[in-house]
Amino acid sequence: MKFSKTMTKQILSFFILFSANSFSQSLFEKGYIINNKDEKIECYIKIESNLDTPKKVVYKIALDTEEIEASILEIKKFSYLDDQKYIRFTGKIERSGYDEFYLDLDKNPIFHEETIFLKVLMTGQASLYLYRFDDIDKFFYKTKEQSIEQLVRKFYLKPNRIVVRENNMFRQQLFNSLKCENIKYKHLEWLKYEKKSLEKLFKKYNTCIAPNEEVFVVSKYKKKNELHLNINSGIDLNALELRYSGVPNEIIGSTIQIGYRLGAELEYGRSVSKYRFVLGYNYNSFSIEDQFSTGDYLEGTTYSGIYKENEINLALRYNYPYNKKSMVFFNLGLTLNLRNYKDNEFIKTESFQHTYYYEYFDQVFERTIYHNGEIYYDISGAVFFGVGYKYNKKLSIELRLHTSRKLNGNSDWKMNLNKQSLILGYTLF
């Protein structure tokens, strides 16, 4: 199959748009939800790509089932990856931010009652929670003696509307609530309103009050990187076209040959991403023996040779899990073909000569061409698109289509190669 320039651009445009849309999507992680009836439902929860606290929960009972969307009023709690936990909270919230343009002159917090999800950062004698919206972090806490309450820090302007001040009310709140001999006011005087500092203080308090009690501390949710090694083998359908300068604008020889390929590839990406970067190597080889089919004096002339190449592939892979054991994937990439001249037998043609006549200023001239040619190879590249299926994260099959590429020969001969591949693969790890 030969791609035209227009078709190549259309494929690239489609894949770029498809990729941009898909990057905003996320994978599903195993977890559970607890509804208003206190029923625990095992499921797969969609991990949103943004960093804000979720406003709803999208989940599947199984990976191959339809998505279910639940509002915050339907879910009391949900969790995934064992330690990523969220609880529903209804209460007073102060939402002021950091942007000077929106600050007012009032240093006192202004509360509004809302229902939100809070991310659990730590639980124990004192628990710490986080609510994030528009890149703004608001922390909440709870002790055995009091219910969940917001830790307040508010920025405000002085009357001149130039100087920004801070109301660090949260330090006084913690001093009043976290009573322990190991916590002094000096520990709070310069306490920062940030996750790391607050977690350190709450851990100190929980250890002081109940040293033998296990304290839950959420681990940082990391999008784990994955590296896979795949080996592959397959067949190539190689369509070769030959052109000669003595017969311009005409394909003088064409042949289709079956070739063989053997290679390996590294696949790298994040565990929650459907995308992978692929770096691959393949060794390809096929032999040629045919005759020119057109070109007057070239017709019937035999050409033959052995074509060998080392192929380097760089690609972006999109994986779409269909169910627990099946996955469809798409590849878009660039292949660079590096040939070793020592290993190649050049395509050779039989000796021939051709005499032709041309007219110049009303005079007729005779010219004879002698040729005993070797068509040599050069470095070339092509774009490829592939679609494949993977079973049980191990076995795969892929159909790969390449754009036409030129194998630049000498000044007289030019070659074009159109290659399509059927590839079988196996993932070692």
Describe the structure.
The protein is mainly beta. It folds into 2 domains: 5-217, no CATH class; 225-427, Porin, CATH 2.40.160.20. The protein has helices spanning 5-23, 169-177, 185-189, 195-209; strands at residues 28-35, 40-46, 56-60, 68-71, 75-80, 84-93, 112-123, 126-133, 136-143, 149-150, 154-157, 164-167, 216-217, 225-244, 253-270, 275-291, 302-321, 326-338, 345-349, 352-360, 363-371, 374-375, 380-391, 395-402, 405-408, 413-427. Strands 1, 2, 3, 4, 5, 6, 7, 8, 9, 10 and 13 form an 11-stranded antiparallel beta sheet that branches. The longest helix has 19 residues, at 5-23. The two termini are 33 Å apart.
Short description:
The chain is 11% helix and 54% strand. The protein is mainly β and 429 residues long. The chain folds into two domains: 5-217, no CATH class; 225-427, Porin.
Highlighted features:
mainly beta, 54% strand, 2 domains, Porin, eight-stranded antiparallel beta barrel, single chain, 429 residues, elongated, 4 helices, eleven-stranded antiparallel sheet
Cα end-to-end separation: 33 Å
Shape: elongated
Largest sheet: 11 strands, antiparallel
What level of helicity do the residues show?
10-25%
How many extended strands? 26
Mean pLDDT: 79
Tell me the β content. over 45%
Structural class: mainly beta
- The total domain count is 2
Oligomer: single chain
Q: Which spans of ≥5 residues are poorly predicted at pLDDT below 50?
A: 18-25, 341-358, 367-373
Question: Order of helices and strands, N to C?
Answer: HEEEEEEEEEEEEHHHEEEEEEEEEEEEEE
Number of helices: 4
Radius of gyration: 34 Å
